[in-house]
Amino acid sequence: MRVGKIARIGNRWLHKGMNGMTDSDGAKFKTVEPERRGQTSEEVVTQLRSMIHRGELRSGDRLPPERDLARLLGVSRPTLRAGIRSLSAVGVLESRQGAGTFVVKADESPVLDSSSLSLMASLHGFTSKEMFGARRALEMSIAGLAAEPGDQLASLAEEMAGMYASLDEPEEYLLHDMSFHQMVAAASGNRILTALMNMVAAVLLDARRKTVRRAHDLKESAEMHRKIYRAIRDRNPESARDAMRDHLLLAQKAQEAEVDWPGRGADQSQRKGAAEESA
Amino acid sequence: MRVGKIARIGNRWLHKGMNGMTDSDGAKFKTVEPERRGQTSEEVVTQLRSMIHRGELRSGDRLPPERDLARLLGVSRPTLRAGIRSLSAVGVLESRQGAGTFVVKADESPVLDSSSLSLMASLHGFTSKEMFGARRALEMSIAGLAAEPGDQLASLAEEMAGMYASLDEPEEYLLHDMSFHQMVAAASGNRILTALMNMVAAVLLDARRKTVRRAHDLKESAEMHRKIYRAIRDRNPESARDAMRDHLLLAQKAQEAEVDWPGRGADQSQRKGAAEESA
DNA sequence: TCGACACTTCTGGTCATACCTTTGACGGAT
DNA sequence: ATCCGTCAAAGGTATGACCAGAAGTGTCGA
User: Fold this and answer.
1) Tell me, what DSSP letter sits at residue A262?
2) pLDDT in tens, A199-230
3) How confident is the model over B140-189, as pLDDT tens digits?
4) Which residues of B touch A187 (CB under 8 A)?
5) What is the mean pLDDT of chain B?
C-alpha cells in the first residue's frame, strides 16, 4: 500500500522538521554562564556533549543555525564554531555548507577517527609489531565472539565467494578481504570492538594495498579466510581464533617483508588515490 | 574594496613581507594551494598532519604564532585556528593561552581521546555488555602478552601492596586498581592496545567509581588481582588471560547490579562538577 | 497540467580587525 | 642576589561582512 510509503517519507520530513529546532524550543539550549572557569569554547563542547548524553540531541538531528545557536548559548559565532569543530573532529558532528550541522547518523557501524591513531603512530614511533599485534588481539577476540552461537553467515559466505572470484585482481580481492573482516566483526555482535578494529585496520590499510598489489599468494590468503569462515560456521571459537591468528601473522609477515616500515617518510593515512604508482 | 576571488587569492602573496620569521621556519611551512576544492581548513589539517608524519613536527615542538603561521600557510587566522582546533580535539596539538601551540609530548603513554567513544556509546546505545566485552577482550590479550617473557614486575607488585593496604578505603583502592591495570598494559609492551584499553576503561570509570564506593568485596577483588599478578610473574599467558577474564566478569557483574546502565540519563564522562545542576 | 529552470533564501565557510586575558621574561628596586 | 612589577607576545573571544554551496520557491514553457 502506498500508505506505508507515504508514511515513511512523511516520517523523514517530520523528523527533520521537528528536530531541526526552531527558535521556539530554544529553551533546550541553556546559555553558558560566565562562570569562566575554563575556556568558553570548551564550555560549548561540554554543553553539546551533555545534550547528547542526555538524549536531547539524537543521531541525525540537525542543530540550529550557527547564528541562532550562538545567540542561544550566549557566545559569539566563532566561539560556537570552535566547539562544533572539536566535536566534528572526533566524528560526532558533521557540518555541511548550505545544509546545516548534524549529529552524525548512527544506523551504520560506528566509526572512530583513525587519523589520531595514525598521528600517534608517527609521534610515538609505534612499531609494525605493535600495530599488527593490536590488530591480531582485536580480531582474534572478534573471531572468537563471531563463532559463538547466533548470527548470520550468509554475508560471510558471499564475501568468500567474491574473494575466490577475484584471485587474479588484487585490488578487488582486497575489497572483499576487508569486507570479510568487517562481516566477521559484525557477526561478533560487539560494535565497540568493531570500531576499534577498524581504527587499527585503517592505519594498516595503505601499506596493505601495496602488499596485495604484487601479491602472489592470494590463493593462500583465501584459503585462510575459508578456514576462518568454517570455524565460525562450525561454532568453534577456539578454532576461529587460531585461524584468525594464523591469517594475520601471515599477512604481517608478507607486509613487513615488502614495506619499509616504521616509515616516517610517507603519509600513511588518507591516500585516496589507490592507483598512484601502479601505472 | 570587494574585488572578488582573483584579487583575494592574489592578496595572499602580495600582501606584506615576511618580516619576523626566521628562514628555517619559512622553509618548513608551505602555503596551501588555493586550487584545492575541499575546505581550506581541512587543507590546513592535512598540511600539519603530513608534517607530523614526515617528522618535520616532532613531539613537544612549538608551532609558530598563529598570526605568523597563518601568513606562512596563506590562510586567515580563523581558518588556521579551525585546523589547529581539529588537531587539538584528537589530542595531537595543545594550545596554551599566552604560551603557544605545541605538538603534544610523547614521553608519557599515548592517550586516545575517550570522549568520542563515550559519545558514540550514547548515540548508538552501546550496551553494558558490549562495553565490558570490549574491555575484557582487550585486557585478556594484554594480560596474555604481559605474561610473556620480558619485563618488569616491580611496579606491579608495588600496586598489589597498595591495594591490600587500602582495602578499607574504596576511593584509594580504586586508584591502585587502575594503576595495576595500567602496569599490566605497560608490561604487555603494546602501547596501542594500552591506549585502546584506556579508551574503553575511561568510559567505564565513572560508573565504576560508584560501584567501588559501596563495595564490600574489595578483598575478593584484590585476590583476583593477585592471581593475575602471579600468572604474569610465572610467565603463564593462558593463566593470566583466564584470571583477567574472571576478574573482569566479576567486576562487570558487580557494576551492572548497581548501576542503571545503559542510562541515557547521566553524563558518563568528564563530570568535573559545574555543568549539571547549576539551577 | 506538469516539469524544467531560474531565483531567492538559508546555512556553513572564510576573512579582516579589534580587543581581552594569560603567560613569561626582562629589568629595576630592595 | 632576590623579588616583584611591567610589558610584550600569544592565544581566546567578539563583531561584522562577504563568499559559496544547498534547499526551497516560484515562474515559464511545453
Assistant:
1) S
2) 999 999 877 777 666 666 788 889 999 999 99
3) 999 999 998 776 677 777 777 888 887 788 788 888 999 999 999 999 99
4) none
5) 79
Judge whether A104 and B123 are in contact, CB under 8 Å: yes
Give the nucleotide with minimal C1' distance to the Cα of B97: D11
**Residue B266, pLDDT above cutoff 60:** no
**How many residues make up chain A in this entry?**
279
Helix (H) or strand (E) holding B101: strand B100-103
Three-class secondary structure of residue B63 per DSSP: coil
Cα B170 from Cα B36, distance rounded (Å)? 56
Contact at CB, A90 and B89, closer than 8 angstroms: yes
Q: Are A123 and B55 in contact (CB under 8 A)?
A: no
Q: Which of A33, A88, A90 sits opposite B278 (nearest CB)?
A: A33
Query: Checking DSSP bridges between strand A100-103 and strand A93-96, what pairing results, if any?
Result: antiparallel
Would you state the cell numbers that stand for residue B71, as one nine-digit string? 601568513
Query: Pseudo-torsion of CA A74, A81, B118, B95, nearest 10°?
Result: -100
Contacts of B270 in chain A (CB under 8 A): 46, 49
pLDDT over threshold 60, residue A268: no
What gap in Å lies between CA A187 and CA A203, rounded to an integer? 22
B3 touches chain A (CB under 8 A): no
Quote the domain boundaries for residue B43: 5-103
CATH assignment of the domain containing A141: 1.20.120.530
- CATH number of the CATH domain containing A32: 1.10.10.10
Sequence-ordered list of residues with C-beta below 8 angstroms from that of A106, at least 6 positions apart, any chain: A59, A60, B123, B124, B125
Instruction: Specify whether B34 is located in the same domain as B128.
Output: no
Q: Which band of pLDDT confidence, cut at 50, 70 and 90, is reported for residue A159?
A: confident
> Is B191's pLDDT higher than 80?
yes
Q: Which of residues 63-122 of A touch B (CB under 8 A)?
A: 78, 81-82, 85-92, 103-104, 106, 110, 112-113, 115-120, 122
CB contact under 8 A, B119 and A92: yes
| A275 part of a folded domain | no
Cβ separation B267–A54 shorter than 8 A: yes
Give pLDDT, residue B76: 95
- Beta carbon of B273 within 7 Å of strand D? no
Contacts of B26 by beta carbon, 8 Å cutoff, 6+ apart: B18, B72
Task: Report the pLDDT value the prediction gives residue B13, as an integer from 0 to 100.
Answer: 27
Task: Give dist(CA B262, CA B127) in Å, integer.
Answer: 6
* pLDDT tens readout for residues B64-108: 999 999 999 999 999 999 999 999 999 999 999 999 999 998 766
Half-sphere exposure of B235 (CA within 13 A, CB side): 5
The secondary structure of residue B64, as a DSSP letter, is P
- Nearest C-alpha neighbor of A151 from the set A235, A230, A226, A222: A235
Distance A279 CA to D14 C1' (A): 52
- A82 CA to C20 C1' distance (Å): 18
Q: Which three cell numbers stand for residue B271?
A: 563530570
Q: How far is the CA of B99 from the C1' of D1 (A)?
A: 28
Number of domains chain B is built from: 2
**Judgement on whether residues A225 and A252 belong to the same structural domain of the protein:** yes
